[in-house]
Amino acid sequence: MLNLPNILSCLRILLVPVLILFYFLPMPSASCWAALIFVIAAFTDWLDGYLARKWEQTSAFGAFLDPVADKLIVVMALIMVLFKSPDWYILIPVTLIIARELIVSALREWMAELGQRNAVKVSQMGKWKTTFQMLAIACLIYYKPLFGLPVFEIGVALLYAAAWLTIQSMYYYLLAAWPMMRNKG
Prior knowledge:
Elements: H1 4-24, H2 30-54, H3 60-84, H4 88-113, H5 124-142, H6 151-184
């Protein structure tokens, strides 16, 4: 239970309050530090899964902990971004992404109870969704232009791409679960 992949997932959970603290610090470099913390958390998301598979350290606890850590850091980061930029064009993709996370998490739990966990396992589209989402959030947290690039605007564009992939991947998860939903009602 206490292996490096699970420790990395726990670290991601512990980074949530650190991220919040740095995001709201009243200093000019706060957004830079907060973005770096988020990037570290996003990297641990990739690394814990990679190590668990490579070292054959997958476990039921890890299968529970990893998505909780992922959803927690992403949802909190999206709420923080929305707090600082309370605009409709940020609210729409944030709402879609959070709603999808709740729906798919509940669907996975229900399918696991039916012994059909593999019917809704992570797909390649889900991995692309996560990649776009993490890049978007890092840009939105950083906020300021970098080397003349409009980082926030790039983040908004990536957030819309992530929202589109979010809706598509949710559709495929629901499609995969539909036969069980129809039969088990």
